[in-house]
Specification:
The chain is an alpha/beta fold. Helices cover 37% and strands 22% of the residues. It has a 7-stranded mixed β-sheet, sandwiched between helices.
Length: 186
C-alpha cells in the first residue's frame, strides 16, 4: 500500500481529477504508470532504470522489440509495453525533450498528452507519471511544471467520453513540488 502525501488536487470537468502526490511511482494505485523514457526505450538511468529493475527483463525485451518493429519513439511521443512483474496493466513510455532541444515546454506537454492518449486508447481509468525530463534530461523545473499542468489539463478536457478519470503526478520532495502547485493555482 502506498504512503502518499497529497500535495495538490484539481477537479476537472466530467468528474476527472488531477492529483499531485509525494510518493513512490511503483506503488501508485493506478492502472498504468508512465516511464520517463528516451526514444530508444533503453532504460539505463533515472526513473527508467528503477522501473526496469522492478519490472524485470521482460520490460526491456518488449521495449527492444517495439523499437525494432516501429523505430524510435519521437520526442513528444509515447509507446506502451506490458509491465513485467509490476502490478500495473502497462507501462507507458513518454519521451520528453532534453535541455537544449528547443521548445522544451511544448514538446514536454506533448509527451504528457501522448502518454495520456495511449492510456485512453487502452481504456485505463487511472495513470501516474513521474517528473519527465526534469532529471537526466535537465529541462528547467519551471518549464517542466508548466508543461505537466498544460499536458494534463489539455487531455482531461479533450474528450467527454474518455475513460481516464484520475491522473497523478508522483514527485519527490523538492522545488518542483512548489512550482507545480503554483502552476495549478493559475
Amino acid at each position: 500500500m502506498s504512503e502518499d502525501t497529497l500535495v495538490a488536487r484539481e477537479e476537472r470537468p466530467g468528474g476527472r481529477v488531477f492529483e499531485v502526490v509525494l510518493g513512490d511511482l511503483l506503488t501508485q494505485p493506478v492502472d498504468a504508470i508512465v516511464n520517463a523514457a528516451n526514444g530508444h526505450l533503453a532504460h539505463g538511468g533515472g526513473v527508467a532504470a528503477a522501473i526496469a529493475r522492478a519490472a524485470g527483463p521482460e520490460l526491456q525485451r518488449e521495449s527492444d522489440a517495439l523499437v525494432r518493429a516501429h523505430g524510435r519513439v519521437p520526442v513528444g511521443g509515447a509507446a506502451v509495453t506490458g509491465a513485467g512483474r509490476l502490478p500495473f496493466r502497462a507501462v507507458i513510455h513518454a519521451v520528453g525533450p532534453q535541455r537544449g532541444d528547443g521548445d522544451e515546454e511544448s514538446k514536454l506537454a506533448s509527451a504528457i498528452d501522448s502518454a495520456l492518449a495511449r492510456a485512453e486508447e487502452r481504456g485505463f481509468a487511472s495513470v501516474a507519471f513521474p517528473a519527465v525530463s526534469s532529471g537526466i534530461f535537465a529541462v528547467p523545473l519551471d518549464v517542466c511544471a508548466r508543461a505537466y499542468v498544460r499536458g494534463v489539463r489539455g487531455r482531461l478536457g479533450a474528450r467527454a467520453d474518455s475513460p481516464l478519470r484520475t491522473v497523478r503526478l508522483c514527485l519527490v520532495p523538492g522545488r518542483l513540488v512548489d512550482l507545480v502547485r503554483a502552476e495549478m493555482s493559475r
